[in-house]
Design brief:
This protein has 13 helices and 39 strands. It has 688 residues and is an alpha+beta fold. The protein has four domains: 191 residues, Immunoglobulin-like; 104 residues, no CATH class; 253 residues, Rossmann fold (3-Layer(aba) Sandwich), CATH 3.40.50; 96 residues, Immunoglobulin-like. Strand 21 and strand 22 form a beta hairpin. Helix 2 runs antiparallel to helix 3, helix 2 packs across helix 10 and helix 4 runs parallel beside helix 8.
Length: 688
């Protein structure tokens, strides 16, 4: 074994938060349509098959070529559903309206959202938190994630509500009229009062019109922001549910007044009787054409992106009377205006928002996935879709994807998946080859977990046109509940004049250390070349055992020093432990993926914690790609005893392994103990 004198960074690393994107061209030749069917009480209808459904695409019936059923309330159904199937994950965006909501309503929405995250979401569900504000735009506080802690923190601190009214119009204008004198002047004063009253009424009418025009502009801006949000979510897989917490805007500014008589209607009648038709605001009477067109455009974007907007009226029970003005119209019709065209619901007239969200989840417990082959003719063309359900009693309600776009005209943003989506859904990224090794070294507190990434240098150089390459590395450790227990981000800049030769020869070996408590984890790594947008992804599952149990670390094959471009990342190890990969004081570099040849001698080490040398027995075996296992010989060449660890060194020379991927397993038995054997593995690639 050759000693590694030092493992240090030879690069200047610049760390900082960054949002990467993953480009992926979507083939819509196969279109999947999620469908939910509920009865009159909002309960899901179960037990339907493909024969119960008809798909209508642009007026033409399409044969259903694939059918799936997912019941989120059934453990058996969830076990049989692949975790990589987007339909097996429900995606919720908790969206807070910062423009048309009172502080009290926002507080109720925050409480309901916290309860939804804590008790309503299932293990596979994804959620994000965002705000929409006509003064500041749409802001995504978190990406779609399973991390309840992150979601709860975002819900507790969305952007603060702030009213904005630059016209400063509030109530009736007050003018002071100087008193007159004498009876003769009284008649003239009365005429003057009448003229002044007409002038004041005209000023008030004009100011109301200006105020309505300003507020209509704010409404149109919010509608456009919601449409842009739907476009952004277009390329995320599966159906996306936007839960919109809002009190709603004044619907008359968009669709006109409703049929009920009010003071404005009476005033219009007065204007008509006087022949003053120019004073009647036709937009308030019949609706504003531009605003209605914006709403329809927003709805098309939602339908085409498979996004459904559910509105939750956070005002609660609305009263139609006022102590000062008497009968009033307090309408949440604006929420219907936004949600219904997308296929969503409005939860209203309730002071229990938790009940509303529970009802929404219950309606989505059962999802039917209908697939069909869609012909492509005009790239970018939008197809309206309808789903008919047959063979069940009447009174049911159907919600489904309302349409899709033909492939070929997507813009860059629409072809993009976020880095978070890649990590959460384990989406393969073949552009950059990445191998990962994560090793939990037990300790008295948290285990320190070195993570080694081997990043293919030739893949990084491909498509590079600059003198430098910027590379971003994202590391996450998810526990069994989907909570990120530790994470790390690193950005590095490579000067090709200095490192291009080393990159072509091998690549980068990146070394960082996480800190994790006892439990099971998925350690996920995403590598992104900034200029070329090329990506690589790797996942490795580990178990951090209790500190007192026998623990066997994976076999460490010794890599050749100087072969890789070494980059030392950060460390979250609070104990400041020494470099852990050492044998008798000599450091070595372990391989993330072992590449060897039949007949070639290689050395590897196995670290066993909480078992002495004379207590340890072992056996080695090899598994092929099919999972078949058979014994394989290895020779013990050295054994060392530390304070709480036994280190064994072996020599291994495979003789007849099949070319390709396999795995070397070592099983450790503790003599005289009733403990179950411990097994550790390392992936191998057998080359010619």
């Amino acid at each position: 074994m050759r000693a590694l004198v030092s493992i240090t960074s030879i690069l200047l690393l610049t760390a900082g938060a960054a949002l990467g994107q993953v480009k992926e061209t979507v083939n819509v030749h196969l279109v999947e349509v999620p469908v939910t069917v509920v009865d009159r009480q909002g309960n899901p209808v179960r037990g339907l098959g493909a024969s119960n459904f008809e798909l209508i695409d642009q007026g033409r019936r399409r044969p259903i070529t694939s059918f799936d059923r997912i019941d989120f309330a059934s453990p058996d159904s969830m076990k049989s559903a692949s975790p990589l199937n987007p339909a097996a994950r429900r995606s919720f965006l908790l969206l807070f309206d910062m423009s048309f909501a009172s502080p009290n309503g926002t507080a109720k929405a925050q409480e309901a959202a916290r309860n939804f995250v804590a008790r309503g979401m299932q293990r596979r569900d994804l959620a994000a938190v965002g705000t929409v504000d006509v003064d500041h735009g749409f802001r995504l506080l978190t990406a779609f994630t399973t991390d309840r802690n992150l979601l709860t923190a975002a819900i507790g601190n969305p952007a603060h509500f702030r009213s904005s009214d630059p016209l400063q119009i509030a109530g009736t204008l007050n003018f002071e009229v100087p008193p007159g004198g004498g009876p003769a002047g009284a008649v003239a004063q009365s005429d003057a009062h009448a003229v002044l009253a007409d002038q004041l009424a005209e000023i008030a009418r004009m100011q109301r019109g200006m105020n309505d025009s300003f507020n209509r502009g704010r409404i149109e801006k919010q509608v456009n922001l919601l449409g842009s949000l739907a476009s952004t979510l277009r390329m995320l897989p599966g159906r996306k549910q936007v839960v919109f917490f809002s009190e709603g805007f004044d619907p008359r500014l968009v669709q006109g007044r409703d049929a009920r008589m009010n003071a404005e209607s009476l005033q219009d009648m007065t204007y008509a009787e006087r022949g003053e038709a120019w004073k009647i605001d036709s937009d308030l009477r019949y609706g504003n054409t531009n605003s209605l067109s914006n709403v329809e455009q927003m709805a098309r974007l939602f339908r085409g992106s498979d996004v459904v907007l559910h509105a939750v009226d956070i005002r609660g029970v609305r009263m139609q009377n006022d102590l000062q003005t008497g009968s009033t119209i307090s309408s949440n019709e604006a929420l219907f205006l936004l949600s219904k065209p997308t296929g969503g619901d409005v939860f209203r007239n309730s002071n229990d928002l938790n009940h509303d969200l529970d009802q929404m989840l219950r309606e989505q417990e059962v999802v039917y996935i209908l697939g069909f082959q869609a012909p492509t003719g005009t790239p970018g063309r939008f197809h309206e879709m309808k789903v008919r359900v047959n063979g069940i009693p009447g009174g049911f309600r159907v919600s489904h994807r309302r349409g899709y776009y033909e492939a070929g005209a997507e813009n860059a943003l629409e072809r993009t998946l976020t880095n978070a989506e890649v990590v959460l859904n384990d989406i393969p990224q073949p552009d950059i080859a990445v191998s990962a090794l994560a090793v939990p070294f037990p300790g008295r507190g948290n285990a320190h977990v070195p993570v080694i990434l081997e990043i293919n240098g030739a893949d990084l150089l491909r498509s590079s046109q600059s003198k430098t390459i910027a590379v971003e590395i994202y590391l996450y450790a998810f526990d069994e509940e989907g909570i990120v227990r530790d994470r790390m981000f690193q950005r590095m800049t490579l000067e090709l004049a200095k490192v291009a030769e080393k990159l072509r020869e091998s690549g980068i070996k990146y070394y960082a250390t996480l800190s994790l408590p006892e439990g099971k984890y998925a350690v996920k790594a995403l590598v992104r070349a900034v200029e070329s947008e090329r990506k690589g992804y790797a996942r490795t599952d580990i178990v951090v055992p209790p500190a007192s149990e026998v623990a066997v670390l994976p076999p460490f094959f010794f890599d050749e020093p100087g072969r890789w471009l070494m980059v030392k990342g950060g460390s979250h190890d609070a104990s400041n432990s020494a470099y852990p990969f050492q044998i008798n004081g000599e450091p070595f570099i372990p391989s993330a993926t072992v590449r060897l040849r039949n007949g070639e001698k290689r050395q590897f080490a196995v670290f066993v914690y909480n078992a002495a040398i004379d207590e340890v027995a072992w056996e080695t075996s090899v598994r092929d790609e099919s999972g078949a296992s058979r014994p394989t010989p290895s020779s013990l060449v050295k054994e060392l005893q530390g304070d709480d660890v036994t280190k064994l060194m072996f020599q291994y020379a495979p003789g007849d392994l099949a070319l390709g991927a396999s795995a070397l397993d070592i099983t450790i038995h503790k003599k005289g103990s009733g403990d179950a054997p411990r097994r550790a593995s390392v992936p191998m690639v057998v080359q010619r």
